[in-house]
Write a structure and sequence with these properties.
The protein is α/β, with parallel strands linked by helices and 346 residues long. It has a single domain, classed as Rossmann fold, CATH 3.40.50. The chain has helices spanning 8-29, 44-49, 66-85, 99-105, 157-168, 189-198, 206-214, 221-239, 286-290, 317-320, 326-333, 339-344; strands at 33-37, 53-60, 92-96, 131-136, 174-181, 242-246, 250-253, 258-268, 295-298, 301-304. Strands 1, 2, 3, 4, 5, 6, 7, 8, 9 and 10 form a ten-stranded mixed beta sheet that branches. Helix 6 runs antiparallel to helix 7 (206-214). Residues 146-154 and 339-346 have low confidence and may be disordered.
Amino acid sequence: MCAYANTPNKAIIRKCWDLPILERWYTKNGRRLSYFGLPGPEIHDLLDWQHLLGVVTGIESPGHNKKEREQADETIGRLNANIMLNGLSSGFQLLRADVEDVILNSVDNYGNPPQLNDGRPAHLAHFTYDVINLDFDGGLGYRAKQASAKRTHGAAKRVDAIKELFKRQECHSFILFLTINLRDTLGPEVENYLNGLQSRDRGEGWHEMLDWYLNRTKGERDYKLKAIVPSFIHSVAETRVFRCISRPPIAYKGYGAHMIHFVFELEATGSNSQGIRLREFSPQDDRELLELPLLRSENGQLQIASIQHPGFDYAHCEVNLGFLPEDTRASILASVPSRTILEMQR
């Protein structure tokens, strides 16, 4: 199985969902965007977005055993060949490590730092990337084999890396593409998080809505992740003084795995006249995040999922899709379920 193999479902997300967001940031910034992440050996991201990208730091794991190392050498060879064949070598850097290790340690397995860093010692280094693409095909809750003495024992390594990412990127606005396997390996923490949200009071129907998410079955993990991941990202981002906007998540079947794709637009805000900023407050609150629609990419088409939480306002979908080009938005809205399906909704 190739974690980064292209599929029609993944391609449509990249071209019709992610691309308009990148184009708006490109126009706003007035320059090419820098990229940090996992382009994969076929570099589909870089090819589809190349007119918008400048400096690129790609990351590939070198493998953790003999078989994985052999596969990694072949993968990295294909990646480098595709970079050369497509004329993308200028400004391109390849780091060899797990992406979460690069974020946590600020260097790859060979001591090389990401090229857009401020030159400080690794434990203090800040990054200045505009686009960060994290594709966690193994799930969000991946645990390190040996917990670092400097980190909480047994902590989920990728969760730690996401928290560290906001520290590394502090004071620099960026887009975060986060794609995770529905086999998230977070265990009961997902339900614990939902229970924590339920302990808050966010108005009429709030507790019933949380009950619905909590009662999703094993085959409906995408709904639970849709409910908690934006809330988690917002909580981390705001403490690092980022204003965060979450776009509706998209569930899809990739190459042999069920995935869910999130997009977060993160605006860094400066300190006040006294040089102090305790936190930032995002325009979306707990309820607005939970009420985001779940979309699906099926047969190479983006559509509103036929099942949403009770009380879901389909009429509000147009607002949540307002960042998209009109033709794409109209196509998605045309998929809104019929009254018959709505009446059958759980």
